[in-house]
Design goal:
Strand order of the largest sheet: 1-2-3-4
Number of helices: 4
Helix content: 10-25%
Number of domains: 2
Order of helices and strands: HHHEEEEHEEEEEE
Radius of gyration: 31 Å
Largest sheet: 4 strands, antiparallel
Structural class: alpha+beta
Shape: elongated
């Protein structure tokens, strides 16, 4: 008995009573769909993609085995799940054209407001200040910090081991002073500051 004969004579439950829920994640690798996109699929709107068991058995408390997937009553692929805790994997597709058609159908089930990219646009004119803050002396990369609007050479990490992680010594107007690194700003790594690193 060949596969075509089995598919032609497959027992298919009534479309109205057949559960329409499908684990769309089995398609992610074959159809190159992001798992995060599959999470957005509105499976309740799925009216055309169905799965039917070809050969199944009970594993603990779950029905597993070989299944056939149909898109608008046309076989598109076969899957297999050997055990309850194993993944269901696509064994093969009828054709590349039907795989593409299945992908397009699945993507159509993603609500319009979730299609496209999910990004934030940068405000390139946003004021970033003269630098950024670090909390601890061990995070410091620059040889200079900005303190009281002046570039100051860091002369010593004076954090005293495990008791204080914030004190540094800097040169300010010819004098060495001890300050808290949290009161400083670290200059950005830009060309005009390249000698500060």
């Amino acid at each position: 008995m060949n596969l075509q004969y089995i598919i032609d004579n497959l027992i298919k439950p009534d479309r109205e009573t057949k559960d329409t829920w499908i684990d769309f994640s089995i398609f992610k690798d074959d159809l190159n769909i992001l798992y995060s996109d599959l999470d957005l699929v509105d499976w309740e709107k799925n009216t055309d993609l169905r799965t039917y068991n070809i050969a199944s058995h009970i594993c603990t408390d779950s029905e597993v085995g070989i299944s056939a997937y149909f898109l608008k009553d046309e076989l598109v692929c076969i899957s297999k799940q050997s055990f309850r805790k194993s993944s269901e994997d696509i064994v093969g597709w009828v054709s590349e054209a039907l795989a593409t058609k299945t992908k397009e159908y699945i993507i159509s089930l993603i609500p319009e407001d979730n299609k496209g990219v999910n990004i934030d646009i940068l405000d390139m004119k946003q004021d970033m200040g003269e630098g950024y803050n670090v909390e601890y002396t061990g995070q410091m990369i620059s040889k200079y910090v900005i303190y009281e609007d002046q570039f100051c050479l860091v002369t010593e990490d004076n954090s005293k081991g495990y008791t204080n992680f914030h004190n540094i010594k800097v040169m300010l107007e010819g004098n060495e002073i001890e300050i808290d690194i949290r009161d400083c700003t670290t200059p950005y790594r830009i060309t005009e500051n390249k000698n500060l690193f």
